[in-house]
Amino acid sequence: MFDLVIANGTVVTAETTGAADLGITGGRIAALGVGLQGAETIDARGLLVLPGAVDEHVHLQMPVGEFCSSDDFATGTVAAAHGGTTTIIDFAEPGPQQPLVDALLARRAEAKGKVAVDYGLHMTLSRADDETLAQVPDCIAAGAASYKLYMAYDRLRLDDGGLLRALARLGECGGRALVHAENHHAIAYLVARALAEGHTGPQNHPTTRPAVMEAEAVHRLLALAHVAGTPVVVAHLSCALGLEEVRAARRRGQTVWVETCPQYLLLDEGAYRQPGFEVAKLVMAPPPRTAADRDALWAGLAAGEIDTVATDHCPFFFETQKVRGRDDFSRIAGGAPGIETRLALMYSHGVRTGRLSLRRWVEACCTEPARRFGL
User: Fold this and answer.
1) What residues pair up with 234 in beta bridges, in sequence order?
2) Are the CB atoms for 309 and 259 separated by under 8 Å?
3) Which of 29, 53, 75, 187 is the most buried (most CB within 10 A)?
């Protein structure tokens, strides 16, 4: 007899869909069958039974300049649980000269006693000097097997040489690289030009981070990954041009995984045409693109060219944090929520509309992120 049986539901996995009972012992699934007996039974008749969702990309209590993202490990993980997400992966970001393992342990201490779901940590790799890269094996042994690399943001980005060295080292050590691909120099130029011309409102945010420069960064990343011989994950892809670069790399035989987010599947650039400062709520990087980009992402997700849907959850309070950029859109704290709504949004706008099958929904939101990051 099992501790708990979830009976009479429709079990959905990435491979199959069908009526079955789940037998659970010690908090783990022990059997899948029919007519299972348990000390406790939950009747799931008429309901879908699926694996806990995994959000591979969240930023809880993340320091950004003078601010910290508004969800901490407690509120953010409770929100995740409410939305059906049972595992999140956040980030450990080392300070200047801080050893990687020290940063990992410090971030775990911040989360201790607060998290309501299972969690893991990617390590942010913002330095690619020999001393830092020599620490990667110990950091992997300590439990951080995946690494976030940035091609934008002054305090985080690696130049091309650093990116190549980091990718090569991760390939040698078996680490997984998750990369934010945007062209830092193009963004800096376009932001400075917009502000010099008096374009200070948040409506100007998307024009300073154009899709063509995201695609250029994806192209450059994949070229460097090809030289390094290292598989990579392209984070929060937002545009069709970037997906074309991924297709080209895969044709070369490269292993590339792609993550997108609900905001790129459900919003488009028209949202930035609203008047007033409320548009600041939509400041995120990269920004949502055109309706055609959105449609291309849906098609890529359905076809399996886009592997997963994460959130890049990084909310800030509008009235006390985002408002600091009222006179300069480049100072608006960038990021948006999503940790609680992702699974339901992908069901409503994906499965219910016929864009995604039930199995593909589960694969993209539950199974594939767990598989890719070794959960």
Assistant:
1) 179, 258
2) yes
3) 53
The domain containing residue 6 runs over which residues?
A: 2-48
Q: Write the CB contacts of 206 (distance below 8 Å, at least 6 apart in sequence).
A: 269, 272, 287, 288, 289
Give the other-Cβ count within 10 Å of 346's Cβ: 24
Q: 232: domain CATH number?
A: 3.20.20.140
Mark which of 32, 48, 64 sits at the end of a domain.
48
Say whether 59 sits in a helix, a strand or coil: coil
Rg (CA), the chain: 21
pLDDT tens, position by position, 224-282: 999 999 999 999 999 999 999 999 999 999 999 999 999 999 999 999 999 999 999 99
**100 and 243: one domain?**
yes
Q: How many domains does the chain have?
A: 2
Give every CB contact of residue 97 below 8 A, 6+ residues apart in sequence. Answer: none
**Hey, how many other C-beta atoms are within 10 angstroms of the C-beta on 105?**
13
HSE-up of residue 18 (Cα within 13 Å, Cβ side): 6
Q: What is the pTM of this model?
A: 0.96
Instruction: Give the span between the Cα atoms of 264 and 340, in whole angstroms.
Output: 17
Backbone angles phi, psi at 58, to 5 degrees: -135, 155
Angle at 317 between CA 316 and CA 319, to 5 degrees: 140
Beta bridge partners of 118: 87
The label of the residue with tokens 């999503």 reads: 338
Residue 205 and residue 276 in one domain: yes
